[in-house]
UniProtKB/TrEMBL annotation:
Disulfide bonds join 205-226, 304-325. InterPro entries: C-type_lectin-like/link_sf (IPR016186), CTDL_fold (IPR016187), Hyaluronan_bind_Proteoglycan (IPR050691), Ig-like_dom (IPR007110), Ig-like_dom_sf (IPR036179), Ig-like_fold (IPR013783), Ig_sub (IPR003599), Ig_V-set (IPR013106). Residues 37-153 form the Ig-like domain. It comes from Zosterops borbonicus. Belongs to the HAPLN family. GO terms for molecular function: hyaluronic acid binding. Stabilizes the aggregates of proteoglycan monomers with hyaluronic acid in the extracellular cartilage matrix. GO terms for cellular component: extracellular space; perineuronal net; synapse. It comes from the Eukaryota. It is found in: Secreted, Extracellular space, Extracellular matrix. This is Hyaluronan and proteoglycan link protein 1. Residues 159-254, 259-351 form the Link domain.
Amino acid sequence: MKSLLFLVLISVCWAEPHPGNSSLEHERIVHIQENGPRLLVVAEQAKIFSHRGGNVTLPCKFYHEHTSTAGSGTHKIRVKWTKLTYDYLKEVDVFVAMGHHRKSYGSYQGRVSLRESSENDASLVITNIKLEDYGRYKCEVIEGLEDDTAVVTLNLEGVVFPYSPRLGRYNLNFHEAQRACAEQDSVMASFDQLYDAWRSGLDWCNAGWLSDGSVQYPITKPREPCGGRNTVPGVRNYGFWDKDKSHYDVFCFTSNFNGRFYYLIHPTKLTYDEAVQACLKDGSQIAKVGQIFAAWKLLGYDRCDAGWLADGSVRYPISRPRKRCSPSEAAVRFVGFPDKKHKLYGVYCFRAYN
């Protein structure tokens, strides 16, 4: 019985319409298609370069495939910008626009807007760029049931530097490492930033935290204490470790600054407290580690005099290697963390511009 029913159903489905069959005179063919052309979102550049304190436009335009129109006019266009985390698993809201409605979020409030140079322009303008703005941004355009996205990377000109506190090597958990960078006018470096620094010659044997929670270190000159002489140069990866219990150094990233970095000419050498007061008396503050690295790398600052910095360390920047002043390489030379009360040095100051 079931077989017979199955054959009957097949016969009905496959029966061809007969011209003389009046019961089929209203039969018609239904065509199913998408409602209009597909929405496309495009970023004209995948990477944009800028610097701290600058202004930048992240490009994003939308249109319909096979047409030059921005939208169908049936639905309102919604534009949403988010910042992506390193693993793309989380998104941080940056800016949303729909019609006359505009909303910015978090630290981006008052600093972001749409360029809107044309009706299909969804490019994001960011002003007064911060170190934390570095990263990947997603532009999403939604029209009715259609949507599409494009991703743009914002790169910042800057410098990566290794950092360890007065306590010595491998004394920072992840959260302490974040604070240490912030205290030195910087942020934790990303893997991409560390990789670029390695390609530019950064060689450091101590492993340090990165912003994604991994622990890595860059080696340009393989040697026994740093992975072995027979290994290839590269960024060595220790993997991901417990952010509360594991302790390492940290790699920080800083960019240019809005101010003046300088060595204070003073008639005598100073203790740490005297150095702090001398900068204040000169209308500035004792400089931070990130500021000496930025002045050295980005401005070519060169001085052979060792001086106090805000964290209690003593360093000096050499851009032109010479005898008695880092003869082999350009670098920010690290003297150490001397006794603050008894050791005497010069001081590096920083005066911020209003």
